[in-house]
Amino acid sequence: MAVSTIYSTQSLNSTHFLTSSSSSSTSKHVFFYRRNQSQTNRRFNTTIITCAQQQTIVIGLAADSGCGKSTFMRRLTSVFGGAAEPPRGGNPDSNTLISDTTTVICLDDYHSLDRTGRKEKGVTALDPRANDFDLMYEQVKALKSGVAVEKPIYNHVTGLLDAPELIQPPKILVIEGLHPMFDERVRSLLDFSIYLDISNEVKFAWKIQRDMAERGHSLESIKASIEARKPDFDAFIDPQKQYADAVIEVLPTQLIPDDNEGKVLRVRLIMKEGVKYFSPVYLFDEGSTISWIPCGRKLTCSYPGIKFNYEPDSYFDNEVSILEMDGQFDRLDELIYVESHLSNLSSKFYGEVTQQMLKHADFPGSNNGTGLFQTIVGLKIRDLYEQLIANKATAPAETAKA
Amino acid sequence: MATIATTSLSMATQRAIVTSENRPVRLAGPVRLNNPWNLASRTTNRMVSFNPVKATPEGGISDIVEKSIKDAQETCAGDPVSGECVAAWDEVEELSAAASHARDKKKAGGSDPLEEYCKDNPETDECRTYDN
């Protein structure tokens, strides 16, 4: 199938797929949908029309269940522009989210064993034996090279594999789930990867918050579930963080002695050095070690205050920069003051981080380092995408001239 | 000027394809006027009776979560380190996450059924908005 692509130089606008006459009616439906989207969002300056293969960049996001992947995805797609929604007219239990630029697919869709199958064999969803990495690799590879795929749907309510859905190659493909960096072949397809590393104390606190109101749950059941899954988590999920280009670590605060409530958090953004198109954010002086308490004479903060730390370090034998925030924002001026002291944010205008945080003030973590660092990573990925596209856009033009 | 010319070229290409399939052509005007963020304030009480079909009611999944916890406790009573026990608690986690997502979805989208409907059908009469 020939795929013609029209894309704009101002990069983050919608792509139109013009499929040839032999294409199925399903793909035409997708085309309609994209056209409507573009009409509300047409702001581009110049348009290049090429009939070449679609450029898709692939981002991997790994984290355990209940560790904030969905919130991160909402922040990420918001930075890219346009709300992400489930595919229209599709399976209401689909795990996919689509926006103008981005498609997010959930890797649970590549479960090879459904809920009954896992129970019979006595394996968890965390176990590689319950997942089909061959299919995952084939389909991510196809999407990356501009070919649409029929992806299975794992239904989280029924625990069954539903009829597949058609996924068109987007500009930005995000694969999120338990194992985006587990399989070496899948890992090689990633242009950027992120791991959300939630400490045990915080994981427990978050799950209590999420589940205590649920009928049947108790502190014991929440604890039992975390403990039962832990060996598989340690064996198959946790080791993936060594491959991540950015890790967001979430730990209990050190500002309140012996705090175990999990309300105030210490969050660390670990950024790998030397990654193409990704230059880490820094505080005051790149490569130095800095400890900064913004609260004082110029800015008054409420208890327990805010503390930042920035330093070069090593992480699994990789050279990294670590930016750490302990505490939480209680007022807008605290957030904007902090933003104005961070460098290399890849924002398009002064205050963009603050604007994004305010826009989603209702999301969990909007007042602490989780929301701040997720937003920053979103800006860095947007920047990475724009650099990649700018580099690739010059190549086909030169070929055409020759 | 060059910008406008290229833009309309791409529009023309799209329309040609749409009409060749004998599908109705939607013009830009009404679609562009239907900004979803305008709908909330203007159309609060219209078509309240319209209810989009939800895949699974929230009550349904709560029952499944409750049952999965009982199952896990029973399975683990005999052998707390068996694969079956671990798989049963993993199922509890999966369902608890699904229940939490269902609650979020309900909070985010289910509040205004018309808004949901107009997202999918912006061209219909009941979804039109006018600037004056």
UniProtKB/TrEMBL annotation, chain A:
Every Phosphoribulokinase/uridine kinase domain range: 58-256
Catalytic activity: D-ribulose 5-phosphate + ATP = D-ribulose 1,5-bisphosphate + ADP + H(+)
Pathway: Carbohydrate biosynthesis; Calvin cycle
SUPFAM superfamilies: P-loop containing nucleoside triphosphate hydrolases
Subcellular location: Plastid, Chloroplast
GO biological process: reductive pentose-phosphate cycle; response to cold
Source taxon at top rank: Eukaryota
A Pfam family assignment: PRK
UniProt EC number: 2.7.1.19
Family: Belongs to the phosphoribulokinase family.
Protein's recorded name: Phosphoribulokinase
UniProtKB/TrEMBL annotation, chain B:
Domain CP12: 61-132
GO biological process, one term: response to sucrose
InterPro entries documented for this protein: CP12-like (IPR039314), CP12_dom (IPR003823)
One Gene Ontology term of the molecular function aspect: enzyme binding
Source organism: Arabis alpina (Alpine rock-cress)
Annotated S-S bridges: 76-85, 118-127
Protein name: CP12 domain-containing protein
GO CC terms: chloroplast; protein-containing complex
Pfam families assigned: CP12 (PF02672)
Domain of life per record: Eukaryota
Keywords: Disulfide bond
Span list, region Disordered: 97-132
Basic and acidic residues composition-biased segments: 116-132
